[in-house]
DAC domain-containing protein (Chondromyces crocatus), 452 residues
Amino acid sequence: MATPNEPFHAYPADLARFILERCCAEGASAGQTQPPHEVEPPPRYGKPSRATLERLLSVAYQATLLREEERPVTFRLVFCPPEAFPEASGPPRGMQRLEFVRQRPYTEHALRRIAPAAPYARALIGVYLTDEGELMIWGIIQSGPLWLRSAIGGRGASPAFPEGALVVRGPGPGLLAVDREFEVLGEIRGGALASPASMDVFTSRWFPACFTEARGELIALHTEAERHAPIPWTPLQPEIFRQIAQQMVKRILATMQVAHHGGTLLLLPPSLEPLVMQDERFVKVKYRFTDAEPRRRYRKLILGLMSTLAQTTPPEEGPVDWATYERSTCPEVALLDEAIFETAHLIADLANVDGAVVMTKRFELLGFGGEILNGDVEIATVRRALDLEGTRYALEPVDWVGTRHRSAYRLCHAIHDAVAIVVSHDGGIRFVAWKDDAVMYWDHVPRSSRER
């Protein structure tokens, strides 16, 4: 169903209203009543009024538009008083609270000056509301990088935020997000409001379905290896193959976002490998890799990880699921996890070169510097998905975007089983695929800030 595309630009006041309305709706569904002008962290943190939340977000938004010695201003800030963090704590399992002797007024220029001392991936800036109703910067909280574990590949517990604390993230110019601890409540990106509840592509049905055949092959190979094992293995939950594969993609995308270079990842049907690599159909790959085992290292690592988990997990703890993987202390699992992490970094680094990184849906790495052909194919419009499954959409002219996005549209128009993922310089992620007889795209918004 097509929906008219009405031009609209969202600003901090719109984000504040969106956050408050969402929290109010969540409270109502839980049987609680909460005025729409307030949001509900724990009582001892105070309840920011709509005016306070608008001020908090407005200053943060303005700070993202500034530069500090020619560097973009990026930051995370947490809205709660210093006593919300224990004194005797610190990374990697806790957070280190560092209070200023003299607190600073909460302004965009104060954020600009302090942000370089609180790197986005490792620290936060503490902000609270005084008894006099003033927003003040009270210090820095060192979190370490474990909060990013679901994106960068770490396992185990992340440092705990104060329960219900609001976190405001400014990852780039004009980009602003609000989290409740690690749950993304909403964000402004590209001048529009985005809600993670509706656009986390990894929670859709269509995206995992694109890899059904590849997952089936992995399960068959694992079953064959188990059949020749001297002792029975602990069974695996079938979902773990999907979860591990998605984690690989998340790691690649997270690394590409951090680079701020932008890039395109093409996932092609394995049957097209000869046409692409030998006949240069659809994609001309400038730097092609030799057809040998290193090109297929990802599959080998996944099979190794699955068999190791099956062999080292006691039968009484089975079947093996995602939680088993996360809490495993097996050294071999840790080594395989690190190897998968490095493979993700390798693929993301290849995207720094102009052109697309080209892989199959088995995650076989064909090459990089790919030039998408089919330049003679004319596409006037593309569908922008308004929900996870693309049942609602808006039509957009393709000339609204740059060459990188238009090339991805052309590829998915020519290869209906392909998936293209485009990462913009500002960190935006767009999934492109052929669905319901048309090219459609989804602007991905993760549910968790740890996937940024």
The first helix runs from residue 12 to 29. Confidence is low (pLDDT under 50) at residues 1-7, 40-44.
